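Design a sequence for this backbone.
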């Protein structure tokens, strides 16, 4: 009997995981699914979506139960998916709005908003890690909670190799770029893929196939680049200069001015839109005769609005962009590798060790990794980091490690994190940001 627990079980993405566990290659992977959330109303709403989920004939969805009690949920768990959002979408709205008022980029996981979010997320997940040591000490934790790199690194101090961080952005980028240049990818294998970075800060640097790196061919083909999201976001001229295809979140670094102006000119922040959308949806789900259809319509709308500030006015995402990734696929591939022992290769957030000598050994990095029954470990990096890559990664890793210290109660570390972040650029603004977030969220310091 295999027991999977989803913490944040009333979350918007849970139906995607449930559908993947009900049909296809992951059907039958688990026997018991427990959805835990501190908000019972959200749990009930998502349960109605699961009950209305259209599945093919013969599908055998896992049994699921609901609970608001963390200890009950964790008892005897084999795998825990951590997908919580401390402060909810209301907290995200504050994070983004405070930054915007100070003319700083306001984005949930990048820059000031990411630091503010981590100061809530890290204490909450550390308590989960401590509870796991008591109630399911042998369980694996697969972390969805953002900011994923910082949260995973903080959890390593409690759970060690038993925690693995995931994100769908890197694998989606690789899949889209490979498709654009005609490189076939085998599920669970990353042969020929050179991707390196931190969470929401990485670069695709090579796509080797049949003895040749096909990335230069892709970078030289404007039509191919225009066929997928990252190619359109950064544009062919810039990508040729970089010689890489960056993760879409590097838009905020390479086009900081444009991103800040686009967000400042928007009528509402992304957080405000999602907050209102979710409030309306969850209320509706309790009585709707078509809960799945209502949920799916909002899902498509959310996907369409993702990173909208990076697209020209009126621009939209193609279907291949919307469906290119999927947290559920990455999470379930990881879980299958852990439970079956079948070797799987994925881009994951894992402990650095000696993989990138420019960063501390205990740093969490986002690179191609192999997953087995013993856990996840980074695969060898195919080529050295450039000075640009090493410099930006080192600066952001310094921000992350100061933020982790701050989440343990160190206010000076919090101020340092804001001061040294490359998207903030002013010690005076760093002071004002920290004071505004303290007032809004009531952070506690040792």
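Sequence:
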């Amino acid at each position: 009997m295999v027991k999977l627990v989803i913490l944040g079980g009333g979350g918007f993405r849970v139906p995607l995981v449930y559908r993947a566990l009900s049909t296809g290659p992951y059907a039958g992977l688990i026997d018991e699914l427990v959805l835990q959330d501190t908000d019972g109303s959200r749990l009930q709403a998502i349960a109605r979506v699961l009950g209305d989920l259209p599945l093919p004939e013969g599908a055998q969805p896992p049994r699921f139960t609901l609970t608001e009690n963390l200890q009950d949920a964790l008892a005897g768990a084999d795998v825990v998916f951590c997908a919580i959002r401390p402060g909810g979408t209301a907290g995200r709205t504050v994070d983004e709005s405070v930054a915007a008022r100070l003319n700083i980029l306001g984005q949930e996981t990048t820059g000031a908003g990411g630091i503010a979010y981590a100061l809530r997320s890290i204490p909450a997940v550390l308590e989960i890690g401590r509870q796991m040591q008591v109630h399911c000490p042998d369980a694996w934790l697969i972390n969805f909670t953002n900011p994923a790199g910082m949260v995973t690194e903080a959890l390593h101090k409690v759970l060690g190799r038993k925690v693995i961080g995931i994100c769908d952005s890197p694998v989606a980028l690789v899949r889209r770029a490979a498709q654009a240049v005609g490189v076939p990818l085998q599920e669970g294998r990353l042969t020929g893929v050179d991707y390196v970075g931190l969470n929401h800060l990485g670069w695709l640097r090579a796509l080797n196939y049949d003895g040749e790196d096909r990335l230069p061919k892709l970078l030289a083909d404007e039509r191919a680049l225009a066929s997928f999201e990252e190619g359109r976001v950064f544009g062919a001229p810039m990508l040729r200069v970089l010689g890489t295809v960056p993760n879409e979140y590097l838009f905020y670094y390479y086009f900081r001015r444009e991103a800040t102006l686009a967000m400042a000119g928007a009528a509402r922040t992304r957080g405000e839109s999602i907050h209102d959308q979710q409030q309306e949806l969850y209320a509706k789900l309790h009585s709707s005769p078509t809960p799945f259809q209502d949920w799916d319509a909002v899902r498509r709308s959310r996907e369409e609005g993702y990173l909208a500030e990076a697209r020209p006015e009126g621009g939209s995402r193609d279907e291949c962009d919307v469906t290119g990734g999927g947290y559920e696929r990455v999470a379930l591939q990881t879980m299958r590798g852990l439970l079956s022992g079948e070797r799987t290769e994925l881009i994951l957030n894992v402990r650095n060790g000696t993989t990138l000598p420019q960063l501390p050994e205990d740093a969490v990095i986002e690179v191609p990794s192999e997953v087995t029954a013993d856990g996840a470990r980074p695969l060898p990096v195919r080529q050295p980091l450039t000075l640009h890559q090493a410099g930006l990664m080192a600066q952001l890793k310094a921000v992350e490690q100061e933020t982790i210290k701050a989440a343990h109660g160190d206010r000076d570390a919090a101020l340092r994190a804001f001061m040294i972040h490359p998207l903030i650029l002013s010690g005076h603004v760093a002071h004002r940001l920290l004071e505004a977030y303290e007032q809004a969220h009531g952070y506690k310091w040792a």
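The radius of gyration is 21 Å.
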